[in-house]
Design a protein that fits this description.
Porin, 3 helices, two-stranded antiparallel ribbon, 6% helix, disordered N terminus, 14-stranded antiparallel beta barrel
Length: 473
């Protein structure tokens, strides 16, 4: 029984934090890119091109620096208290910083380095009195009741934070005046923390449905992945037109750490893997004149890939001496996510000021069967993303030959993503994606440590406020 309880603690601690990482990649690297609908694969020739398309580092004459800070504000809604309930998270805040440096090391070669957040997400539901219809609280007086009694006097806070960052170094090569190539090597790192109330007993072998047991679980894991490349190219068939593409190879991050629970006095070892999937972006930009720039881009992330996507996650439970207690498969069931982007920029006659606008039409990776409270919601089609911004340019008075040496960019972005589900999934049996031999689970039931596919409204409102400063000459 002692070993069973330890296994329960670890599984409960890892299940939701792993799911919380199901976040559409924000690509919040540069304010100019954000203001123009998260574009940049074709036109961004600043140091941040290292991430969007390293081929465009060729646009740097000698040396460049960029620092970007994006403040992410979110408000999430989900049926946390039980099927068809409505619980709002309140406004959450997440910082997304990045920094880049690039310099020309040869007439046809530019080298760059940077650190940035590839994916980030955080969510918090405060003063929660019920989870899945069962009261929460620290003592036996708050044991599950039938019917549920969610008026207990000791409400609890639920919190999840997750991010994936990367160190990167790369270069661009001007193979021809109209053909640029780029490559970058990425070293990813990740951190996941959670403080939750979960149905721990559902992880026990031989668990009897109808007898849920909820308890406090805290989790803290992180790690560094193996290096993987990013490739890009830009073709200039005409002086006003650029055609570009970028390919990012998948990365695997090994996460290790601890989990804590009231059921066991000692922290337990936790191990799991996380995949950053393959991604592909393509775009065309048209510089109509010295003032007007139009951009059309598309991006797809292959979360559905068999071995390198996010179908599930294997959680390994072990004792302090390394003895493995169990291996639990956590379902994700993500699908490939794509987006179409349109960007607009107009530089006024004196060229001191630029106005930017953009929109982003996209799908989400989360599916209805495996939607839960701490993931961004499922969304089959989202057109509610709009962005705008301003760019300011200054020249060096002591050296007027250097154009646009100082650049300050401001951007804002708003997105509303969500979907409402009825009873189409509740009580149905679904196969856990990627399991061999197949494993089945009953959706929105007390057989799950974290219930998925429950009826209700899943929605996230997001607002970004971004600022970038670039020194380039």
């Amino acid at each position: 029984m002692k070993h069973k309880l330890m296994t329960v603690c670890l599984v409960a601690g890892l299940l939701t934090p792993a799911s919380a990482s199901a976040n559409p990649e924000p690509t919040a690297y540069d304010s100019r890119s954000i203001a123009m609908g998260l574009t940049g694969v074709t036109f961004l020739d600043r140091p941040a091109a290292l991430v969007l398309n390293p081929a465009n580092l060729e646009g740097i004459e000698n040396l460049g620096f960029t620092f970007n800070f994006t403040a992410l504000f979110t408000n999430q809604r989900a049926p946390v208290a039980g099927p068809n309930t409505r619980v709002d998270s309140g406004v959450g805040f997440g910082p997304i910083p990045s920094g880049f440096i690039a310099g020309r090391i040869a007439p046809r070669v530019v080298f760059a380095g940077g650190i940035y957040i590839e994916t980030g997400y955080g969510s918090s539901f405060d003063q929660v009195r019920c989870v899945d219809g069962d009261p929460v609280g620290p003592g036996p007086e708050y044991a599950p009741s039938t019917p549920p009694n969610c008026t207990n006097p000791d409400p609890q806070n639920l919190d999840v934070t997750f991010f994936v960052g990367e160190f990167s170094a790369g270069l661009s090569i001007r193979a021809h005046e109209k053909f640029w190539l780029g490559v970058a090597l990425r070293l990813p790192f990740s951190k996941q923390t959670a403080d939750l109330w979960q149905n721990s007993l559902a992880a026990l072998p031989g668990y009897t449905p109808g007898n849920p047991g909820y308890g406090r679980v805290k989790n803290d894991i992180g790690g560094v992945g193996f290096p993987s490349p990013r490739f890009g190219f830009t073709i200039k068939p005409h002086r006003k037109v650029r055609i570009s593409a970028m390919y990012r190879m998948y990365s695997k991050i090994r996460l290790t750490g601890t989990t804590e629970t009231d059921l066991f006095p000692e922290p337990l070892n936790a191990e799991a893997d996380w995949f950053i999937p393959h991604a592909l972006a393509f775009g065309v930009s048209y510089q109509a004149n010295s003032h007007l720039l139009l951009v059309f881009e598309a991006r797809v992330q292959f979360h559905e890939a068999e071995k390198t996507g996010n179908k599930n996650q294997t959680v390994v439970a072990s004792l302090a001496d390394g003895t493995v207690l169990s291996e639990i498969v956590v379902p994700f069931g993500w699908q490939n996510a794509w987006s179409l982007k349109i960007g607009f920029e107009y530089r006024f006659k004196k060229e001191f000021l630029a106005l930017r606008l953009g929109t982003n039409i996209s799908t989400g990776a989360t599916t209805g069967e495996f939607a839960q409270y701490f993931t961004p919601p499922p969304s089959s089609f989202n057109i509610s993303t709009g962005s705008a911004g301003l760019g300011f340019y200054w020249n060096d008075r002591n050296d007027p030959s250097i154009k646009d040496k100082y650049r300050l960019d401001l951007a804002g972005l708003f997105s509303s993503t969500g979907k409402t589900f009825g009873n189409e999934f509740i009580g149905t049996t679904a196969q856990v994606p990627g399991t061999d031999p197949p494993q089945d689970v009953v959706l929105c039931s007390d057989q799950q440590v974290v219930r998925t596919g429950c009826p209700g409204r899943y929605r996230v409102l997001s607002f970004w406020a971004s600022v970038s400063f670039t020194l380039q000459y």
